[in-house]
Design brief:
With 687 residues, the chain is α+β, with helices and mostly antiparallel strands. It is 26% helix and 27% strand. The strands form 9 sheets. Strands 1-2-3-4-5-6-7 form a 7-stranded antiparallel sheet, covered by helices on one side.
Length: 687
């Protein structure tokens, strides 16, 4: 008889088996891996059916990796042993090759270990549990329990541990505003992870704060893949739309508690690489689907579906919601190959483009991706900022959700360099936004900026060459796909650009540019200082100067963890932020240094700045500068800056309604400037 085809277990080969036939939500599936230095790696999945007491048989239907390691087509699994720690599973691999038998020892009831930490800004509460019967709108069969986030993920198959306790991070200084900017939140995440010791298990950090600077329309931010150990974190904002119960709701307090709990579980689900229920065919959440033909579940009562997206809205959703993930999502979490946490690969686009997009026959909307310049050509090192234009192409008004153009969850962006594989662009952060429905009249358009140079997949638009950029937008009526935009990145202008490129094209510099600066990433800031000094005549210098000036233009919040107080990542002896003396401090502004950098970035060459930042990005940055000036009592200077913004965009042909808004803001500043100058000796301020 021929020897077994499977590699013999030993030092160079490791095998494991996952048997999913009992417990909560059994999928009747077995999966396993074979891996070793000399043989490579294989991941396999088989569907199972009972074949007697403690026995299951089934067919292997999925392989990922070196298929020669397991040429068999079927499995026959027998479990023996009275107690879990004594149990063994004997698997006979049959069909397609001589029978091979393996015996596996019981290790755990869970697929993987994961640690959760919940921290709160002072004065805020973490929503970590929900009374499933507190709200009357619920399934009649729903058990009454105090359900925790840890229990949700244990039922999904994970061995969840928590760092010690519920941690309140005190505010060392009560000054400054109580809102958080993207840059402040990102710095807090960076600070946390820089103190997190490298640990074997996965870890999620959830930070509960009061409100984002965008106000109540933003419920949370999730940051992807900071650090090497599959760590992700999210910031939840309590004073947001998730805390606003519908008018007339029977139990508004219970509605808010349930919505906050759902939002936390939803955002944490993305950390396990789960796609939205209606986006499975596009990947989980950014790359190619892990199973061919994976079906979307737009009506799923799952943590990964939006309650207001299903037929009947949130009332219908919660009336049939069992506080769980769908079977397809559980199959992914428990049995998909771990390599699927690697995002960014978009080989499917090279073969099929957007053929799989659900494009309606007569689309009511037209999507255009464009550059705000005469030709789509960008300097070497210049961050590429494009613009999205969504137009009502019908003769009747259309309702659109304006948040679609600002949400990575509803958009697929493909970047393909000539002669190379396509990449799917994924930004560093994703936002949980309240829907913002407006009426778009025939011929009217809605616009949004689209920075595409750098994200969690690295610098997708960096090397000189020609690129194709194409965008698909998922709407309630189907997918809207843009025509491809062909753009060019120019070669280096000289030795200094070539030399600095190795320091610019890094993750940390990319993050600083993406979030308009950082108070904590000192090495990246040093690189940007060098860029501004050595490449002052290049457009990348404008981006560098802005990223250096914006964080210090006004007071800001910063998470401070004492030096030497690194978090230890183990569940047994890990210390939470509250245990190591962490606090939130207010960092004072440096107005003179900030003004010098911001004026150099935005006002020294306003036409060039408007082109490189894009019209939308330029307006946002200049208006932020005018607010800083006004807050410092420099209303006349602020009015002058606002006037420069108006004149620059007027010369570039922006919409009349935009110019009217800019004129109105300038008029608001002028009276205050005049009243101040009348009472000030020496007259008006000169520039």
């Amino acid at each position: 008889m021929d020897p077994p085809v499977l590699p013999r277990p030993g030092r160079s080969v490791v095998e494991d088996l996952r048997l999913d036939v009992d417990g909560r939500y059994p999928q009747m599936v077995a999966s396993g891996t074979i891996r070793g230095w000399l043989v490579g790696r294989l991941h396999w999945i088989a569907d199972l059916a009972p074949a007697g007491p403690n026995r299951w048989t089934g067919t292997i239907w999925y392989r990922d990796g070196n298929a020669a390691l397991l040429p068999h087509s079927s499995v026959d699994i027998k479990v023996a042993g009275p107690f879990p720690w004594l149990r063994t599973a004997t698997v006979a691999f049959t069909g397609g090759a001589p029978t091979a038998t393996r015996t596996y020892r019981y290790e755990s009831a869970y697929h993987h270990k994961v640690e959760f930490e919940y921290d709160c800004e002072q004065g805020q509460a973490a929503t970590l549990s929900v009374d499933t019967h507190a709200h009357p709108n619920r399934p009649g069969t729903l058990p009454a329990e105090n359900l925790t986030l840890e229990t949700v993920y244990r039922r999904a198959g994970f061995d969840v541990s928590r760092s010690t306790g519920d941690n309140i991070i005190p505010s060392a200084d009560a000054g400054g505003d109580t809102q958080w900017s993207d840059q402040e939140m990102h710095d807090a995440m960076q600070t946390y992870w820089s103190r997190f010791a490298n640990a074997a298990q996965w870890s999620l950090w959830v930070f509960f704060a009061r409100q984002h600077v965008q106000g109540s329309r933003l419920g949370g931010i999730m940051f992807d893949d900071i650090g090497p150990n599959h760590r992700q974190g999210t910031a939840m904002f309590n004073d947001s739309f998730v805390s606003q119960a519908p008018a007339g709701d029977a139990a508004p307090a219970a509605w808010v508690q349930r919505m906050r709990f759902w939002t936390a579980a939803h955002e944490m689900g993305h950390a396990f690489n789960l796609a939205h229920s209606w986006q499975k065919s596009l990947g989980a959440p950014y790359g190619t689907p892990w199973l061919p033909g994976l079906a979307d579940e737009p009506e799923a009562r799952s943590f990964m579906n939006y309650p207001y997206n299903v037929s009947g809205g949130q009332t219908a959703f919660f009336a049939d919601f069992a506080y769980r993930f769908s079977d397809a999502e559980l199959l992914f979490m428990r049995h998909a190959p771990e390599r699927f946490v690697q995002m960014g690969n978009a080989d499917w686009f090279d073969h099929h483009g957007f053929e799989q997009a659900d494009v309606v026959a007569e689309p009511a909307l037209e999507l255009v991706v464009r550059a705000n310049r005469e030709r789509p050509e960008f300097e070497f090192l210049e961050p590429v900022v494009l613009e999205l234009k969504l137009t009502n192409s019908t003769t009747r008004p259309q309702l659109i959700d304006t948040s679609l153009l600002r949400s990575a969850d509803n958009m697929t962006v493909i970047v393909k360099r000539q002669g190379q594989a396509a990449r799917q662009f994924a930004p560093f952060a994703r936002y949980c936004l309240e829907p913002d429905t407006v009426v778009l009249h025939p011929g009217e358009s809605h616009y949004a900026a689209l920075p595409v140079s750098v994200g969690i997949g690295g610098w997708d638009l960096a090397e000189p060459g020609r690129y194709l950029v194409q965008v698909a937008l998922q709407t309630g009526d189907g997918d809207v796909v843009s025509e491809p935009l062909l753009l060019r990145v120019a070669p280096p202008h000289g030795y200094d650009e070539e030399y600095l490129a190795q320091d610019v094209f890094t993750e940390k510099v990319g993050r600083v540019l993406a979030f308009d600066g950082s108070r904590v990433l000192d090495g990246a800031n040093d690189t940007l200082h060098e860029v501004a000094e050595r490449l002052g005549d290049r457009r990348v210098a404008l981006h560098a100067r802005y990223a250096l000036g914006a964080p210090v233009a006004a007071e800001g919040k910063q998470l401070r963890i004492p030096e030497g107080a690194s978090r230890n990542g183990s569940a047994a002896d890990g210390r939470a932020l509250g245990d190591v003396g962490a606090d939130i401090v207010t960092v004072k502004a440096q107005p003179k240094a900030a003004q010098q950098d911001l004026e150099a970035a935005l006002l020294a060459s306003p036409a060039v700045a408007a082109e490189t930042f894009g019209h939308i990005g330029y307006r946002r940055r200049v208006e932020a500068f005018t607010e800083v000036l006004a807050a410092e009592g420099e209303q006349q200077h602020a009015a002058q800056v606002q006037g420069t913004l108006h004149d620059t965009l007027a010369e570039r042909g922006v919409l009349d309604r935009v110019l009217a808004e800019l004129e109105a803001r300038q008029a608001e500043l002028r009276p205050r400037a005049k009243s101040r100058s009348k009472g000030t000796k020496g007259g008006s301020r000169k520039r």
